[in-house]
Amino acid sequence: MWQTFPVTHEGGEAEYQWFPVILDGTGSRGRVMSVSKVDCTVEKKNGDVCHGGGRGEPAVCLEMETPTPTPHPPDSKPPPTTPKDAVAAACASAAEPPDSVHVVTDSGDNRHHHGDGGEDLVFEENCCTRTVERVHSAVQAHFRHRKRLVHRVVKVAVLLGYLVYFALAMRHRFGDEGSVTLLVLTLFGAGLWGGRWVVRRTQCMPLKKWAKQLRGTRKAGHLCVVLKWSSRIGAVVFITVFLMINVWTENPENLRSLLGIVAFIALLFCFSHNPSKVNWHTVFWAVVQQMTLGVLILRTSWGLMLFDWVGRAVKSFLDFGLAGARFLFGEESWKVHRLAIITVSIMVYFNAFIASLFHLGVVQAVISSFGRFLGHCLGTGPIESFAASANIFISLTETPLVLRPYLSKMTKAELHAVMTCGFASISGAVLGAYAQFGIPANHLLAASVMSAPAALAASRLMYPETKHSKFRNMDCTEIGDMRRRNLWEAVSRGAGHAGGLAMATLTNQLAFVALLALVNAVLRWFGDRVGVEDVTFKWVCSYLFYPVVYAMGTQASDCRTVASLLGIKLFGTPIMAYTELADLRTNRLRLEEYVAAGNATWDWQGEDVVLSLSNATLVGGVIAERSEVIALYMLCGISTITSIGVCLGVMLSLAEDRKEDITGMVVNTLVAGNFASFLTAAIAGLMISGKPLPT
User: Would you state the pLDDT for residue 683?
Assistant: First the structure.
């Protein structure tokens, strides 16, 4: 709503002042959105004064918020009903600060301007236009007053329609891949909705009230201690029994990975910023969570089947990302530059999809549910729990954007956890690109989920929390609002952001390959000077990281190959390491097919494997399936030297006031992110069985 008043002013245009205004005699109250010149005398905080004037003077436009009914006390004076009285009331209550902060003014005639700079047209009113306006206003008012009812009716109608469709689909054809997918998605959505409904409803249940009454009492303290230690002892007993029965008896070599887990935790503790303040509750339950996931994924038949099905579903979903590549480059031409085109296509496609789900609130629901679970189990705050959960879906560059309002007020430990979680995981878009190179999507997804608690454990070991967080009592559901004006804007922004990220990935890849060729040439030159041949970057890394990959449980004969992959990932890009791992996996499958056909004649020729009967050479050789899986989990993260620049660029642009903290911790978080991946790989090595895994 607009009101225009004639005013005069001495000493130039006054600064903006905000006033609440009574609009009419019915008690409706609005709030002035802007004012630069007012027909009154008001002393501003800075000493400026506006003086009253008369007719013919310049005008000021006051933009009002939508008025809402406000009751007036019985002894209050009647509200002003004229523009002049309205301004007087505004001046009398100038000390009241409003909620609005938008400013629009006009110092010309009585015609006012809108945000686009145009002037309102003058329309002649008649009975028809007045009738249409009254009907339009009545419909709007009716909808505003019954908005919740309308939304509920729409939701119920959509739910009933989906239930009818689901019943028809199950009746028409049940048992094939499509019906199983529809059933799983329906159960997942129902479980997510039901869980959120239960959480809301249990706020007023007797058990909740009893817990609130018990909180802070001596009895509650004793009960918490009993529950805490009984759960810890139970977890230790269960893990010990499981390892003795299922690991020691079947694959005693797996216990080497257990020593690696202990060694990695000990190293993190030794390099901790404040080792005496480490919260071992977080570390213990993070490892327990990882082991539980490892048992479900790698040890149970139904867990293997579930993640195998999820992996195939994810692979099928990501294949649609190549439709754009086929359209732009042709059905066959895009394969000429397969690496670059796959990377760009999958990243753009998946980011656009995730952005649309963010706009609809689907991703926030999943992240907040998983974040609350992590926070409850590990004792971490909502910020760290949300960051660990979000990085399963989005990347190191996007999670800080979601957390932007909180970065300036985070403690150093929370900031460390956010950066560590970014380094320790990969986004869904990157996962899709790796899957297109031939890496099993089920293991990539499992590694992403298992890395979430590992990142929190590594961060709390390297940088324990020593301050009271300002967000400790906040719920994860309050974080992560990335809504846009509409769905199409969300898709466009998601695709645009992914395009820049994909280009950065490709340029880093190009730079690393070029620099790697230079480093290899230099190393060979130095090796020739002392009579040592074939000294390369991979050769150096194969010895440098040999103890690390051996502690994870890698088969001894494959340690040098896996260690070279770790070196490529750390000093270059994970994409290059995963492409080499995909080649090794392809070689293993070809060799197994060759042997299964009754051909047992093959031998090593340097680092390559030669199949005698088919006269084929498997370049790079082969590694055991156990070593392959451990390497896959080990490489699942973007904790590389080149990612430091990306992390600094994003974090410093969003929180310039934390520049000293961010730059001081970035290397520390990189190390913590790598150790989180090492922990995940070691637990995978501990839990992997001797049975063939789904491919």
Answer: 92
